[in-house]
Amino acid sequence: MCWWGLYQSESFRDNDTTKAKQSLATAKKLSKHATEPEKLYIQAAVQSEDHPRKSSKHDDDDNARHRDSNETKTLRKLVAMNPLDVEAKVLLAESMLNGFKKNGDPKPGTVEGQATLAQILVEHPRRLRRQSFLDPRCRTRQPSRIRPRQRAQLAVLAPASGHMVHMPGHIFYRTGDYEAARISFEHSMNVDETYMRDHHVKADDDWNYVHNLMYLIADLLEAGRVAEASQMSAKLNSARGDTRATLYVFSTRDGLTRLNVALPVVLRAGDWAQTAEMLEVSAPDKLLTNLVWLRGTLLEYARGMVALDAGNTPEAAKHLDALNAALKVKPEEKTMAGMPMPGASSMDMEKDAAHSFMDVAALELQGALLTAQGKPTEADAAFQKATAAEADLGYREPPYYIRPVGETRGDALLRAGRFADAKHAYEDALRERPNSGYPLYGLARASAAAKDSDAATAAYARLLAAWTHADADLAPLREARRWMQNHAMLTAE
């Protein structure tokens, strides 16, 4: 079982599977000396290694019946043999999880797995492993299922573990409590930095550190703490190691930071002029061909958005054509290990990730252009495709797409004078980023443009409440304070 434990530890981040496989092979070889339950533990691990859970066409079928894997069948035997073995129940629950349907409902395997984990929490409320497994399994589509006390308890149970201190932040972020999330992520950063300093550990051997910084930056942006987000972005650029665990070459969000540490900041705010300026002066290493490609295509997108802000639809159309032409070049094939082809830099981001990101951006630009051209039917269809493409990026933490499609659509509709539709678009964005000041600002502007003073006042009040800790000089806050002051004066009269 010690060899089984080594396998579990060594295989966790998939950086070097050779040692993990050797440990599991030794565990299997020695299992004839093990107890019957221990044999089942090892057998389940072997079955998981031989047939790893991966997506397939069957997984995309929302109506597909759940089918137990061989690993799950073995773990069911293990639990039946000893119903009090909580560890076996946790492994069984995880083996059943098979994701969510397109409408957000959990699939049958996930339903049973979540129910098992929830029952374990009831029976063993202070068992750390149960908390850490239930947290990520619920946060994707049902973050509100985890009560505030449960969210906070996880960090208390393991205050010296950077990852455990970090985990409640996922739930806080998903529910729009960005201040509580910030506290979780900053505490995690401090725990990790203390650990790495005291034990002479590099970032590659503390993969949570980079992930936590990325999530902290995303959280600070939604909270309107732009200056801090910029500082953390600069810190992120010097925090990466040399392995995939810390390079995040599969994350376009991280790739944007490499082009300019402040790029995600201006993108989140929808400041297209500054986005274009930053990209124009950005000069990634020519060997990083995919990052160079991202820079070029994103620059076309930003310039198109700048043109639309100026009411120049022919110029926007020119940049959309250039972007679509670049998108016709399909991503390079990967090796079986998922690494870049021979000759490519291991530091380069994955092109399929950049390509998928820019697919969404191109559809956004198309929808915004069609809206400006007075073609509402075609524009709405383009934005629907953009929303679907954004969803197809998959659930990621933090979200890979910096700015929800709903906000870009809301901006386009606002420019076109379709104020009621703009409000609906901003509300869609709020469902993705609850309590974020950016869609709240859009909602307030749309209401004000529609001459709905009460709705605008309510939205501006929500914005001020949501951005209590935001940078005081942000333009949305200045406008909100000005509106509320004028509203108070009119009410007094």
Describe the protein.
With 493 residues, the chain is an all-alpha fold. The chain is built from 25 helices and no strands. It has helices at residues 2-10, 17-30, 36-50, 70-81, 86-96, 108-123, 128-139, 148-157, 162-174, 178-199, 208-222, 226-237, 244-247, 252-259, 263-268, 272-281, 289-309, 313-327, 351-372, 376-392, 405-415, 419-432, 437-449, 453-466, 475-492. α4 (70-81) packs antiparallel against α5 (86-96), α8 (148-157) runs antiparallel to α9 and α17 packs antiparallel against α18. The longest helix has 22 residues, at 178-199. The radius of gyration is 24 Å and the shape is globular. Mean pLDDT is 87; it is low at 133-141 and 333-344.
Summarize this, please?
The chain has helices spanning 2-10, 17-30, 36-50, 70-81, 86-96, 108-123, 128-139, 148-157, 162-174, 178-199, 208-222, 226-237, 244-247, 252-259, 263-268, 272-281, 289-309, 313-327, 351-372, 376-392, 405-415, 419-432, 437-449, 453-466, 475-492.
SSE series: HHHHHHHHHHHHHHHHHHHHHHHHH
**Approximate helicity band:** 55-70%
The low-confidence parts are 133-141, 333-344
- Quick check: average pLDDT? 87
What is the CA-atom radius of gyration, in angstroms?
24 Å
The helix/strand class is: mainly alpha
Number of strands: 0
Shape: globular
What's the story with the biggest beta sheet? none
Number of helices: 25
**Approximately what portion of the residues adopt beta-strand conformation?**
under 5%
Query: What distance separates the N and C termini?
Result: 78 Å
Structural features:
mainly alpha; 493 residues; 0% strand
